[in-house]
Design brief:
Elements: H1 12-26, H2 53-63, H3 66-140, H4 144-176, H5 179-195, H6 200-226, H7 231-243, H8 248-283, H9 317-344, H10 357-385, H11 393-413, H12 419-464, H13 474-477, H14 483-505, H15 519-522, H16 524-548, H17 562-591, H18 602-637, H19 652-669, H20 690-700, H21 708-722, H22 737-757, H23 763-780, H24 787-803, H25 813-822
Helix pairs in contact: 4-5, 4-6, 5-6, 6-7, 7-9, 8-9, 8-10, 9-10, 9-11, 10-12, 11-12, 12-14, 12-16, 14-17, 16-17, 16-18, 17-18, 18-19, 18-22, 19-22, 19-23, 20-24, 22-24, 23-24, 23-25
Pfam families: VPS51_Exo84_N
Region (Disordered): 277-308
Protein name: Vacuolar protein sorting-associated protein 51 homolog
């Protein structure tokens, strides 16, 4: 027994334990059946059959203390009381069940007694019915055969009456236009009349019915050709004609022919609208040029025909597509639905099942739809090709979306039709053509912007009267933009226009557009169309068109302003450093470009832009160097250096060279950083040329000057050159101001040197060259990266003049300095 002292009926757990003990006592399992349990032979098992109280008590006295014995006693008393209570509860519950069962049995006895009486009554009634049925069968047994015979004769007479009244019945139906009843009646009698056609009476009936049914078929054909009836009437008409053995193929052809005539009217209306649009486009004048605005790079101020302005057409493309969808496509869908209901989807029963009408009718329908759809598609493509303006792309996208959406109805009505796929191809071609138009518009916009830049660069010259484009004059500085402003305006306009184009093209991939989920618009359109065909192509176009400015020829570098070359070189350099990466990243994020196919890497575009910038900057150096070289060459070639007078001042051309170089320095400094120079010596502006000392040595030893003396002097000069660094005149320049000015000065002084080598000088001619070179040396050393380069070239110029001089007597250095400082 358990040692738990808690009363068993105090909680649900205790009650379940008590019930389990009772089940265990009575040997019952969970289902209330006697369980087959193994008998316990332990005499101390209080629940076993072999329980021995004496043994159990002896065991307790030996093993337990007095306190434990008292606890066992109290626990056992509680369990005995709990078991007595449970026994009373079980007795009361079973007593109530016995009472309830007794009442139920008593009620069942009463119910079965009433049912027994009713069954006895029913049995008596069935016996009576059986007797009456036997009497009737016996009475009518002799007349049954006669009645059956008379019934058959009556049926035959009714059939004969129907046959004889058939012509009149058919005429009546024909008058009342009850064509279905007439055909049904004729079909019921046709087999009988055919079977007994050898009999004259039946032959006459058959001939009359044939004439009447021919008239009926003629009326049905006329009703079918008119086509003014409803779909239900047409369906009934076709069904009746088929029942009258009208060829199904001929009916299909007639139906499609009539439908084609109605659809031709819609197509002709669309074609007439295209012709009207073409006439209005021909008679429309060009867009007038607007007055220049305050923005120097605004394309609207210089472009006569702005590609981003849409032509004012009479009917826009959305109205055209709406008309085509509401008239032609809707009518075509109605024709398809009616035709399928008449010839394809109607149940094929009896003799029609063997004719395979649906297959034949379906083939004709596909040919019919493909033919008319091809004409409609050609009109749509012609209208799309007329859509040249790219200002509002949403109109075209909405029109294409509506066009594609309405064609999906045909795919649902006519599965397997190629019409929806052809429509999708038209949308794809329109998207590709749109990208080409946007690329062309961007290229035109870029050219127009450059034209505005050139006009802005030329404005200071016109205002000041020959001043440089760098804005040196104070009168034009406030009215005209500077190079940084022009560069910022040009770059911002191009970038903003490209963003606007990307936003317009992005409409093709909007979520609410039905064709945006097509594989082309998810993959190839984004990667090859937008990224490669539009953005990358436009960036390459900028680089290529910029490089074309370097191909101009002529002594003065062609018609391209040098400032424009400098500005374009900086634009390409900015593209290489940041703009290209920004544009391509923006494109990839906006269009979710997946690089499944090879695309142009950013590094390749940046390299191309840097190459263009380098070529433009080299060409700028060359052009500016040639401009200064032209002045120096003319100043040397147009002067008589043998008979010239003693120099009293610096020639004006040298002052002009210094002024132009200073102007170029300011101009380049607006767009490029300073750069790195070598440390200047403290007496750079006071330096004397080494060639002068050579000249003095030559004069000092003039009495002993022999033909071999020039050879010695040339030898010393050549030896000096061997130990000097080689100067590359046309080497590529770096992207900084010092490198650019160094390149220009190298070209100018080299030209000066070569021109001097071609002339012969007198004493004063040599002294004039000495004064000019000293003046140049005083100012040009500030612009170059290495002042020794200027010193070397000027040494070469003075040395060459001394070698070409008939009386090489140089001017004293102090006198030269006085003249140069006096200017």
């Amino acid at each position: 027994m358990s040692s738990d002292t808690t009363p068993p009926d105090s909680d649900p757990k205790g009650q379940r334990r008590v019930h389990n003990m009772l089940k265990l006592y009575y040997g019952l399992n969970e289902e209330g059946k006697v369980a087959d349990q193994a008998e316990s032979l332990d005499p101390c098992d209080i629940n076993g059959l072999h329980f021995d109280p004496d043994v159990y008590l002896n065991k307790l006295r030996k093993e337990c203390s007095l306190g434990e014995l008292m606890d066992h006693e109290s626990c056992m008393v509680k369990q005995i009381r709990s078991l007595d209570s449970d026994m009373q509860t079980l007795v009361y519950e079973n007593y109530n069940k016995f009472i309830s069962a007794t009442d139920t049995i008593r009620k069942m006895k009463n119910d079965f007694k009433k049912m027994e009486d009713e069954m006895d009554c029913l049995s008596a009634n069935m016996t009576a019915i059986t007797e009456f049925s036997a009497r009737i069968s016996g009475t009518l047994q002799d007349q049954h055969a006669q009645i059956t015979k008379l019934s058959g004769v009556h049926t035959l007479l009714r059939k004969l009456q129907f046959l004889f009244e058939l012509p009149a019945r058919l005429n009546k139906c024909l008058e009342l236009q009850a064509y279905a009843q007439a055909v049904s009646a004729h079909r019921r009698a046709r087999c009988v009349l055919q079977q007994y056609s050898h009999m004259p009476s039946f032959r006459g009936i058959q001939d009359d019915c044939h004439v009447i049914m021919e008239q009926l078929a003629q009326q049905l054909r006329q009703k079918f050709r008119d086509g003014g009836s409803s779909a239900k009437d047409l369906s009934e008409c076709v069904e009746l004609l088929l029942q009258l053995d009208e060829p199904a193929e001929e009916l299909c052809d007639k139906f499609l022919s009539h439908a084609q005539s109605r659809l031709e009217v819609d197509l002709q209306g669309l074609e007439a609208e295209l012709k009207d649009s073409a006439v209005s486009d021909t008679g429309r004048g060009s867009v007038q040029k607007t007055s220049p605005g305050s923005n120097p790079v605004s394309p609207s101020s210089s472009s006569v025909n702005n590609p981003f302005l849409s032509p004012t057409a009479g009917t826009d493309i959305l109205e055209f597509i709406d008309r085509g969808c509401n008239e032609f496509v809707s009518s075509l869908c109605l024709v398809i639905a009616s035709y399928q209901e008449l010839f394809i989807n109607r149940p094929q029963e009896g003799e029609f099942a063997s004719k395979n009408i649906p297959e034949m009718a379906n083939g004709k329908l596909h040919v019919f739809v493909d033919t008319l759809a091809a004409r409609y598609f050609s009109l749509v493509e012609r209208r799309i090709q007329e859509e040249k303006g790219v200002s509002d792309n949403s109109l075209l996208v909405r029109a294409l979306d509506r066009f594609h959406r309405r064609l999906q109805a045909i795919s649902k009505l006519l599965p397997g039709s190629a019409v929806p796929s052809h429509g999708t191809e038209i949308v794809v071609r329109a998207a590709r053509e749109r990208i080409k138009q946007y690329l062309s518009a961007l290229q035109t916009f870029y050219h127009d912007s450059l034209t505005d830049v050139r006009q802005a660069l030329a404005a200071p010259r016109l205002a000041v009267g020959g001043a440089s484009a760098s804005g040196g004059g104070a009168s034009s500085k406030d009215d005209t933009p500077s190079l940084p402003e022009l560069l910022a305006s040009l770059s911002n306009f191009i970038l903003n226009q490209l963003k606007s184009v990307l936003a317009s093209v992005h409409l093709f991939t909007a979520k609410d557009i039905t064709f945006s989920n097509k594989p082309y618009f998810k993959g190839e359109f984004c990667s090859q169309g937008v990224r490669e065909g539009l953005v990358v192509s436009f960036i390459k176009f900028i680089c290529q068109s910029s490089r074309q400015y370097c191909e101009s020829t002529g002594d003065r570098g062609g018609s391209t302003p040098p400032a424009l070359l400098l500005l374009l070189s900086r634009l390409c350099l900015d593209y290489e450093t940041s703009t290209i990466s920004y544009i391509l990243t923006l494109t990839d994020e906006q269009f979710l470009v997946q690089h499944h196919t090879p695309v142009t890497p950013v590094t390749a575009l940046c390299a191309e832009a840097r190459e263009a910038a380098q070529k433009l900057l080299n060409h700028y150096v060359k052009v500016q160097g040639l401009i200064i070289s032209q002045m120096l060459r003319k100043s040397v070639e147009t002067r008589d250096w043998v008979n010239t007078i003693e120099p009293r001042n610096v020639r004006a051309v040298m002052k002009r060279v210094v002024e132009d170089t200073t102007s170029i320095d300011v101009q380049v400094g607006l767009l490029y950083e300073e750069g790195v120079r070598k440390a200047h010596s403290s007496d750079s502006s006071k330096r004397t040329f080494s060639v002068y000392s050579s000249s003095r040595q030559q004069i000092r030893y003039a009495p002993s000057y022999t033909p071999s003396a020039p050879m010695d002097t040339n030898l010393l000069s050549n030896i000096h050159k061997l130990f000097s660094e080689r100067i590359d005149i046309f080497s590529p320049v770096e992207f900084n101001k010092v490198s650019v000015l160094t390149g220009i000065i190298k070209i100018s002084l080299k030209t000066f040197l070569e021109c001097v080598r071609l002339r012969t000088f007198g004493r004063y001619g040599l002294q004039q060259i000495q004064v000019d070179c000293h003046y140049l040396q005083m100012y040009l050393w500030r612009f170059v990266s290495d002042e020794n380069l200027v010193h070397f070239l000027l040494d070469e110029i003075v040395g060459s003049a001394a070698h070409r001089c008939l009386d090489p007597s140089p001017m004293e250095q102090s006198v030269t300095e006085v003249i140069c400082e006096r200017g």
